């Protein structure tokens, strides 16, 4: 029997504009393609590359929760690889960002002693930095799943840009909602208000998924964040609110002074 193989590819956010030639080649030459995308145009594009392409979207409707959906998707992908097929799993954005199915599938295929590889794609983070003109090398950038920040004793990072993924369902513990509730999001907002002013600006960001559409970049005050309109793929971006403070002990060990790094501080203000 032919040895199975799994390649997980990222299609990018704006499909096919973000889709690489390498990814297209992987899809064309696969024995079986499974995909998850959010637009009919993207579905038509993938099925045009390989008539054997099959959407995994139905699992969201057949299962009672998102974790069960991801489990069913993973089982379908791994079973095809175990049967000796060269399988491509094509996911929108970057395939390993907020995508349990890719990580589970790769790990389980490797456990079977079969080859499995993730291949990167343009994710929402790359789109975000381009659209908002943010250089993470300037003040730094910290990423959190919004619910993780709300429910664990993890402090926010007001000295750098903070990106909150899946803000709409922050506080949802059912794993069944795609929209969440304002009362649940308010728990996160109340935590953030301990570190940020109530009028601190927050950008509600949604990357453009088609070449003819524009990204969403709506600014709201932190105090109004919980009740602001948002979708399951909305991301909240919070600029820094604290000035950078030099670490004088570290500078002394480096034989430097605050004056020596004043230009660096100025460039990061």
Automatic annotation (TrEMBL):
Q: Which UniProt keywords apply?
A: Methyltransferase, Transferase
The record's GO molecular-function terms, alphabetically, read: methyltransferase activity
| Name of the protein in question | Tetrapyrrole (Corrin/Porphyrin) Methylases
Domain of life here? Bacteria
One matching Pfam family, short form?
Answer: TP_methylase
Upper classification of the source organism reads:
Bacteria, Pseudomonadati, Pseudomonadota, Gammaproteobacteria, Alteromonadales
Q: Could you state one GO biological process linked to this protein? A: methylation
Task: Specify the species.
Answer: Ferrimonas sediminum
Reply yes or no: does the keyword Transferase apply: yes
InterPro entries assigned: 4pyrrol_Mease (IPR000878), 4pyrrol_Methylase_sf (IPR035996), 4pyrrole_Mease_sub1 (IPR014777)
Query: Gene3D superfamilies from the entry?
Result: Cobalt-precorrin-4 Transmethylase, Domain 1
Report domain Tetrapyrrole methylase positions: 8-211
Transferase as a keyword? Answer: yes
């Amino acid at each position: 029997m032919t040895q199975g193989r799994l390649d997980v590819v990222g299609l990018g956010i704006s499909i096919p504009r973000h889709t690489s030639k390498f990814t297209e080649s992987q899809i064309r030459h696969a024995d079986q393609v499974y995909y998850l995308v959010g637009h009919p145009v993207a579905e038509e594009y993938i099925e045009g590359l390989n008539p054997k392409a099959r959407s995994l979207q139905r699992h969201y409707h057949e299962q009672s929760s998102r974790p069960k959906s991801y489990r069913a998707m993973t089982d379908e992908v791994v079973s095809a690889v175990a049967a000796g097929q060269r399988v491509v799993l094509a996911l929108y954005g970057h395939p390993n960002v907020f995508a349990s199915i890719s990580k589970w599938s790769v790990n389980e295929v490797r456990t079977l002693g079969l080859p499995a590889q993730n291949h990167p794609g343009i994710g929402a983070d790359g789109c975000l930095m381009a659209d908002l003109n943010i250089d993470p090398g300037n003040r730094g950038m910290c990423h959190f799943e919004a619910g993780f920040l709300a429910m664990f004793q993890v402090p926010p990072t007001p000295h750098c840009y903070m990106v909150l993924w899946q803000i709409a369902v922050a506080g949802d513990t059912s794993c069944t909602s795609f929209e969440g509730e304002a009362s649940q999001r308010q728990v996160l907002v109340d935590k953030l208000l301990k570190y940020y002013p109530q009028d601190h600006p927050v950008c509600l960001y949604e990357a453009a998924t088609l070449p003819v559409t524009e990204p969403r970049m709506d600014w709201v005050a932190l105090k109004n964040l919980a009740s602001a309109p948002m979708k399951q793929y909305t991301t909240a971006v919070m600029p820094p609110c604290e000035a950078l403070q030099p670490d004088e002990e570290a500078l002394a060990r480096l034989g430097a002074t605050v004056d020596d790094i004043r230009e660096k501080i100025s460039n990061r203000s």
